């Protein structure tokens, strides 16, 4: 277990059931030697200390240089796009597999979109909609949200190409499956699937949405210091619609505790990479490019992360 604060690392290790199995490795972001030592002794690094616009670059660079496989929990689309743009060739050269955004936001939407769109062609639109209640942010999540709210140069995907520029936020309505039903949504939700989904789903437009009520709940921004049991009190549905001609398809995952779902997703990927059970090619990959989407989701379902519902294409 590595991090920037040695005291915090020791405290976290003592909270674990088997702290004697944990080795703490302090590694400040500006200490290139400590980061190099970390990535040289690890086969896979799971980076979960955001905001990744600030923390991502030095950790990713150290991992690629050492040939250490890299997974992160980023939601920020610009960070994820930067990894695809800047690290594809270096990662391939050193045999490194990099999977950014493999967490609750980002990774689940990417995997679910691939599973829903499997077998479809001529897709007009992919919609990824998050319904989240009871969310309690960590300090890193709160700082990331503040950054994303203030962002003026957003990445969107329409007419088959990415665009970067100002987008006026709006409210829309998305019809979730029962019992949720229609909900007012924030659009666009600035998550990294906007970068990853078009890499493997042949869609002309990709839209990301989040329930407006999520940020209206009182506890969401004042819960940095709550205990783990309280933080786990989240209910969520992630729904995807792929609208195609003549077929369309949909699917969703539903569950509780989005933090646990994100952790299970990244750790399952890390265990596979450490065992050599990963993609045949190295480089920067989305979650669904790295692993077969539906089988990966079904594995997470068996681990208790959520329940998966996939609907066959309908005409």
Q: Summed up, what is this model?
A:
With 315 residues, this protein is of the alpha/beta class.
3D structure, described in words:
It is a single chain. The protein has 11 helices and 15 strands. 37% of the residues lie in helices and 27% in strands. The protein is globular. Strand 12 (235-244) and strand 13 (248-256) form a beta hairpin. The model has no long low-confidence stretch (mean pLDDT 94). The strands form 4 sheets. A 7-stranded mixed beta sheet has the order 9-10-11-6-12-13-15, covered by helices on one side. Strands 3-4-5-14 form a 4-stranded parallel beta sheet, with helices on both faces. The chain folds into 2 domains: 2-102, NAD(P)-binding Rossmann-like Domain (Rossmann fold), CATH 3.40.50.720; 104-256 and 292-314, Dihydrodipicolinate Reductase, domain 2, CATH 3.30.360. 41% of the residues are buried. It has helices at 6-15, 32-41, 52-66, 77-94, 104-117, 139-150, 193-196, 228-231, 258-274, 287-290, 293-302; strands at residues 2-3, 25-26, 44-47, 69-72, 97-99, 123-133, 154-158, 161-165, 170-175, 182-187, 203-211, 235-244, 248-256, 283-284, 307-314. The chain is α/β, with parallel strands linked by helices.
What's the helix count?
11
SSE succession: EHEHEHEHEHEHEEEEHEHEEHEHHE
Q: What structural class is derived from the secondary structure elements?
A: alpha/beta
Strand line-up across the major sheet:
9-10-11-6-12-13-15
How is the topology of this model organized?
Layout lengths: L1 E2 L2 H10 L9 E2 L5 H10 L2 E4 L4 H15 L2 E4 L4 H18 L2 E3 L4 H14 L5 E11 L5 H12 L3 E5 L2 E5 L4 E6 L6 E6 L5 H4 L6 E9 L16 H4 L3 E10 L3 E9 L1 H17 L8 E2 L2 H4 L2 H10 L4 E8 L1
Parallel strand pairs: 1-2, 3-4, 4-5, 5-14, 6-11
Antiparallel strand pairs: 6-12, 7-8, 9-10, 10-11, 12-13, 13-15
Helix pairs in contact: 2-3, 3-4, 5-9, 5-11
């Amino acid at each position: 277990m590595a991090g920037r604060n040695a005291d915090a690392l020791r405290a976290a290790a003592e909270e674990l059931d088997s702290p004697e199995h944990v080795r703490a490795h302090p590694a400040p972001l500006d200490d290139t030697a400590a980061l190099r030592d970390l990535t040289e002794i690890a086969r896979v690094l799971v980076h979960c200390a955001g905001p990744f616009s600030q923390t991502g670059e030095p950790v990713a660079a150290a991992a690629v240089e050492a040939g250490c496989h890299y997974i992160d929990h980023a939601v920020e689309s610009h960070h994820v796009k930067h990894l695809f743009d800047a690290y594809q060739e270096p990662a391939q050269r050193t045999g490194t597999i990099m999977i950014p955004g493999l967490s609750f936001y980002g990774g689940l939407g990417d995997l679910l979109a691939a599973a829903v769109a499997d077998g479809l062609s001529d897709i007009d639109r992919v919609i990824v909609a998050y319904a989240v209640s009871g969310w309690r942010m960590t300090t890193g999540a709160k700082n990331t949200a503040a950054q994303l709210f203030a962002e003026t140069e957003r990445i969107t995907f329409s007419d088959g190409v990415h665009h970067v520029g100002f987008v006026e936020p709006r409210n829309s309505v998305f019809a979730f499956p029962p019992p949720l039903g229609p909900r007012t949504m924030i659009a666009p939700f600035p998550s990294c699937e906007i970068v990853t989904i078009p890499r493997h789903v042949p869609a002309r437009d990709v839209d990301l949405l989040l329930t407006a009520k999520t940020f209206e709940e009182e506890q969401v921004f004042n819960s940095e210091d709550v205990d783990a049991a309280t933080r786990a009190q989240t209910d969520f549905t992630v729904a995807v619609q792929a609208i195609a001609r003549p077929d369309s398809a949909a699917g969703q995952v539903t569950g509780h505790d989005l933090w646990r779902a994100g952790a299970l997703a990244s750790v399952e990927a890390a265990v596979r990479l450490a065992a050599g059970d990963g993609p045949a090619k190295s480089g920067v990959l989305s979650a669904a490019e790295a692993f077969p989407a539906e089988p990966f989701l079904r594995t997470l379902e068996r681990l208790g992360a959520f329940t998966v519902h996939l609907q066959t294409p309908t005409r």
